[in-house]
Amino acid sequence: MDLLRLEPMQLVQLIIPVETAHCSISYLGDLGLFQFKDLNSEKSPFQRTYATQIKRCGEMARKLRFFKEQMTKAGLSPYARSAMSDDVDLDNLEVKLGELEAELIEMNANNEKLQHSYNELIEYKLVVQKASVFFHSAQNHAAVKQREVEAHQSGEGSIDSPLLLEQEMVTDPSKQVKLGFVSGIIPREKSLAFERILFRATRGNVFLKQSAVEGPVTDPASGEKAEKNVFVIFYSGERVKNKIVKICEAFGANRYSFTEDLGKQFQIIAEVSGRIEELKTTIDVGLVHQINLLQTIACHFEQWSHLVKKEKSIYHTLNMLSIDVTRKCLVAEGWCPVFATNKIQNVLQQATVDSNSQIGTIFYVLQTKESPPTYFHTNKFTSAFQEIVDAYGIAKYQEANPGVFTIITFPFLFAVMFGDWGHGICLLLATSYFIIREKKFSSQELGDITEMIFGGRYVIMMMALFSIYTGLLYNEFFSVPFELFAPSAYGCRDPSCRDTTTAGLVKVRATYPFGVDPKWHGTRSELPFLNSMKMKMSILLGVAQMNLGIILSYFNAKFYGNELNIRLFGYLSLLIVVKWCTGSQADLYHVMIYLFLSPTDDLGENQLFFGQKFLQILLLLAALVSVPWMLFPKPFLLKKQHDERHRGQSYALLETNLDDSDGTELHHGSSSHEEFQFSEIFVHQLIHTIEFVLGAVSNTASYLRLWALSLAHSELSSVFYDKVLLLAWGFNNIIILIIGLIVFTCATVGVLLVMKTLSAFLHALRLHWVEFQGKFYEGEGYKFQPFSFASLDKEAE
């Protein structure tokens, strides 16, 4: 594995006999180390050779999606895919899928009809039961009235008896008006509007009786459950009946016929109940049969789905190949790593044997000037760091890969801004959960945020480990210092100096061996000391990383003139180190300012070493010379190269590949006669020069974010500890202490472990993309995407 310089690539031409083409592509897909080029890009998908086979695979994929929908409705899930059987053939699978689809469709249609009839019978039974109560109560009331009339007629007529009542009672029953009725069931939410429309449409010439049904009722048409009411509408006249029927249809009310005879009502209820039981039994048997069929499909679903996806991808790849004039061979071109040459030749030879072909595949390496794809051999640990670099841009072929350095520098710069070994342990515990259970999580569908965290679990692990390291350097555990490695080197002269100032501290033992002395925390000198230390450390780290980028720019033959960083800020870094080593009290701000304002003045007490003044003048002159050196030579060199091409001095030798030289000469010939725009080139270089000069300062100053975010993290942690936890502890009340612990935990997790983690991550990302990679990395390549079956299960259909 060469992560710094990508894998060497080669353009290969394959001449494959038609009879071995399918098997060869399949074996190459299993190998996953060959990226095919589309040799039929001018053709539409419908004009290609294997469009029919792709259409067949698409139809089989549609049937498999139908099966998956049916399994989801039945509460089933596909079983894990077992080893692919040798007897599974695409043609046989196509026939089998068709038969299963037809059987399932027929089952669904029958079940739908039976369920519709079952729901109608349920509603019919409810209507008969509720309406019979209406008629039974009405007939009882009529019988009571009839007995009263008969008793009145049997008595002697009185002068006080109403004449109209006597006339009404003696009227012939055959001449009385016969009322009709319509019965049915309607959703309860529509019953009020239904009643109003009936009243208005018939001008009040109907009598509506409703009764609520207990519990939801399944609607036969929609199959959805809803609260419903049974209704009976009494009317007089056919015109009114027609209006009632239309209103019922408009409101989605289901009408059911009904008889007034009580004996027939009980008979209907008994018959309907019997038919309901029969339908229920039939439906249950059909559902059991359907579940058994779906379970059978679920056993083979993943295997069938993988086979269909595999075949479809093979035919898509075959459509990228060109057919020779004899139509006996397919010609393929593509990229592969050089180390995979023997592997590819072996699988092609095996495909020839398995296809019983007498002619093998021809493997030929082509010479080309086309830029190859980029291929870095990564694993589960390095892939996340490579993704950070790829998000900025894919490396060009043979371009130095920043991912190698990102594995260390990215989590380290994050830790400089997040330095607290207590918070680092929390991050480590969180990411350890994902690492320990990575096999389980890798086989599950995760949410967007969870999947992002799981994918970067090793990045977070490195960030946590470096945070623990820098936290030990800063001697901060949730902002609390500890004497972990040795007692503090300082002690009080007397008890009055405790926790007030460092003025009363004296050095009583050897220097604290690792990190910041715990006595420096909580003193008046703490903030100035940490400010100075972290600011100077940020400059040192920034200059070191940018200089690494400058060195890599020479590695990539990309010269940006960033020597200003090496000369000026490298000199500043030297002064910082010398001051730390010698214990000098020199003012570095004064040294750097007067380096430009008065370079010839005497340094006085700010002199750190012999010859410093001469070195400063030399560096200043070199910096001044660098500006015209970046501006002037390049436009004149480009003009000279243009003139040489125009005179034909830059053409390739005749010994080169003739196939490539024709296109090359035509290209040079067409471009060499173009007029050279010297003014545009000069203005462009001027813009870049100004950018480089300003960037020499701004890029270095950008690393001061390490200092700012580190202090902000430390101060926030200190505020939460002092103003929340210690304040709650001082009340000597268990309830207040519990509340303080909850607030402290929520603030630590929400602000420091989530928001500050995200903030430090983004700032570290910015430093890598702009200040580091901007020095040498172009990122204008394209990724190596080989034809492989390994990613089929992860792709959406």
From TrEMBL:
Main subcellular localisation: membrane
Membrane disposition: Multi-pass membrane protein
Pfam families from the UniProt entry: V_ATPase_I
Localization per record: Membrane
Coiled coil location: 90-117
InterPro entries (UniProt xref): V-ATPase_116kDa_su, V-type_ATPase_116kDa_su_euka
Record keywords: Coiled coil, Hydrogen ion transport, Ion transport, Membrane, Transmembrane, Transmembrane helix, Transport
Signal peptide residues on this chain, from the entry's feature table: none
Family affiliation: Belongs to the V-ATPase 116 kDa subunit family.
Designated name of the protein: V-type proton ATPase subunit a
Organism: Hibiscus sabdariffa (roselle)
